[in-house]
Amino acid sequence: MAALPPGVARAEGGAYPLTEFFKPTMSSGAALSPSGNRIAVAENLGNDENPVSAIDFIDAADPEGQRRRVPLGAVMVSFIDWASDERLLVSVIMKAETSARSQAGSNRRVAGVEYYMRRTVSVNATTGEVVLLFSDQRNRMRNSFDMGRIIDMLPNDSDHVLLATWEADGVMGLYRVNVNTGAATRIERGGSGTYHWRAVNGVPVLRHDMNSRSTVETIMVRAPGETEWKVARRTRVREAPDFLWVGAGETPGKVLVIARFDNEDVQSVREMDLTTTALGPPLNPRPGRDVAYGLPDSAGNYLGAAYYGERLEYEFVDPALAVHHRALNRFFGNTCNVHFTDVDMARNRFIARVDGPAEPGAWFFYDKAARAIVNLGQARDLDPARLGAGEVLQVQTRDDAAIEAYLTAPPGGRPGPLVVLPHGGPEVRDTPSWDRQVQVLAAQGWWVLRPNFRGSGGYGQEFAQQGWTRWGDRMQDDVEDAVAHAIAAKGLDASKVAIMGTSYGAYAALMGAVKRPDL
How does DSSP assign 58-90, residue by residue? Predict the structure, then answer.
C-alpha cells in the first residue's frame, strides 16, 4: 500500500463504491408529539421499484426501549407530523398504473402509464388504526393526484386538521378533515390561481395565487373577521424569493413572516399586520446573513431564527435554548448542522435533524431533563470516516473582497484533481450541508470546491447586488480566486482543474472554459 503524504489520514475501509450513494434511504423522518411523550419515526423497508414503509412509535420516556411498528404497505413516506398526542399524520406517495386500452378505430392497444398519487393517512399511536383522510369522498380521490397538502395542524383541536386539494374544476379547495374518521368538509374555495393557503388556529389568513402564465405570484391576506382578501405583495417568480411564511404571532391579528424593507440589507423575521399589511421591525436579525427559517415550538410559538454561519446557528428568543444547541453541536464535534425540527410545549424535549458535509442525515432525540441524546434513525448507512471531510475557506478576492467557499477532500485527503461546482440561481447559496454529488465526486478522488461568489443569496442584498450585471466578469473572477485559494492552501496540482455546474452553474462552467481554458 502506498504511503500517504505527512498529515493526511487514511480513510478506514477505503472510499465507498458509487452504488452505496444510491441505495434507498432508510429513515425518512422523525416527529415528537405536542406533549413530548411520544416519538414517531418513518422507516423505508423497500426500494425505489417496490416501496414499503412503516411507522415506529417510541415512548419518549424510554427512547431506547421497544418500538411499536405499524406497517403502511406499498407506499413512500414523504412527511410526518402529529395532529395530536394520539394521532400521527403521514403524507404518502403511492405508485399506480393506468389500464392498457385500445385506440379508437384501431386494433392497437396502448400500454398503461405509470403515475404517482399523494394521500394523507392518520395513524392511531395506541391501536395502530390507519384512517385515509377524505375517505368519504371517493369520487374526489379518483380524480385528484394530490390530496396531501397539510395547511394547519390545528393545535387547539385534536380531532381536525386543515388540508387543501384540487376541485373538479381545477380550483383549490380548503377542507376541515376529521383525523379519526377521515371525513372532510369544505370551508373555502380559492381563486382561479390559488395554489396554497396559510392559516392561524383554523382561520385562513394568507393565500398564494399564481397568474395564468406562472410568472407572477400574488400574496393575498385577510384578517380574522374580515370577508374580503386584499393584495399584500406581488413578486416575479424568476426573482429571488423575498417573502416567506413563519407562523402565528403573539399579537392577535398579526403573523410572522420573513421579509426585508427596501432600505435594509438582510431578510429578517418580523410581524405583519393582517389588517394593514404593514411590516414591523426585524426580530433577531444578524448582520450580513439572511434568515434561513423561523423556528416554532409544537404549539406554534416563535422560538427564534436560523442562520448559516460556519454551520447552522440560531438567534433564540430565550437565551437558555442557545446553551443546549451549543451542547448538541459539541456532541457532534462542531462539524454538523443541528436543526431543531420539533420542540415540545415545555421546551424540554427536542427532535434534531443532523446533517453535514460528511453526514447524510440522521434524527436524534434530546431530553434536556434526562440529559439523554438518542439516535432515532438515519437516512443512509455511511461511515463519515470513509467520506470526504469538508471545511470552510475564507477567500480574499483580487479586489480585496471576502467570500466563503466549501472545500471537500477525497476520503483520506490524498492529493488529486480539483473540480469547482458553481451553484445555480445565482441568488441562492451553497451551505455546509450534505450534498450527494459532492461526495460521489470525492469518492472518485476529486477535491470539490463550492464557492459562494458575489451575486449569491443568503448574505444580504448588498452582497447579491454585487453580482448584478457582472455575470462573466466579477462573479467569474470570484470563482477563479476561490480555485487559486484552494490550490495554494492544499498544494493541489493547478494543471488538473475542472469546472462543472447546472443552470447558472452551467453558464459559469462554459464561461470558465471561454475565459480561462488554461485553468
Answer: EETTSTTS--EEEEEES-EEEEEEESSSSEEEE
CA distance 187 to 215: 28
Secondary element (H or E) of residue 458 = none
Residue 7, pLDDT > 50, answer no
Closest CA to 281 of 295, 268, 263: 268
End-to-end CA distance of the chain: 32
474-490 and 504-515 helices cross at what angle (nearest 10)?
80
DSSP string of 340-373?
EEEE-TTS-EEEEEEEETTEEEEEEEEETTTTEE
pTM, full prediction: 0.91
Is the pLDDT score of 354 beyond 70? yes
Report how far residue 42's alpha carbon sits from residue 48's, in angstroms, rounded to the nearest whole number.
16
CB 244 within 8 Å of CB 296: no
293-326: b (≥16 Cβ within 10 Å) or e: ebbbbbebbbbbbbbbeebbbbbbeeeebeebbe
Phi, psi at 443, each rounded to 5°: -65, -20
What radius of gyration, in Å, describes the C-alpha atoms of the chain?
25
Q: Tens of pLDDT along 123-142?
A: 999 999 999 999 887 777 77
Q: Is 80 exceeded by the pLDDT of residue 104?
A: no
Alpha carbons within 13 A on the beta-carbon side of 171 = 10
At 239 the pLDDT is 78
How many other C-beta atoms lie within 10 A of the C-beta of residue 157? 16
In contact, 393 and 485? CB cutoff 8 Å: yes
Q: How far apart are CA 81 and CA 298, in angstroms?
A: 10
> What is the pLDDT, as a whole number, of residue 148?
80
- 451 prior amide bond cis, ω within 30: no
Smallest Cα–Cα separation from 321: which of 423, 242, 301?
301
What does each C-alpha distance from 250 to 256, 273, 299, 301, 322 come to in angstroms?
9, 12, 12, 8, 21
Contact 70, 142 (CB under 8 A): no
CB atoms within 10 A of CB 499: 23
CB contact set of 495 (below 8 Å; sequence gap of 6+): none
Average model confidence (pLDDT) for the chain?
92
> What are the cell numbers at 248?
402565528
Pair type for strands 114-124 and 184-189: unpaired
Answer for the pair 136, 184: CB distance below 8 angstroms, yes or no.
yes
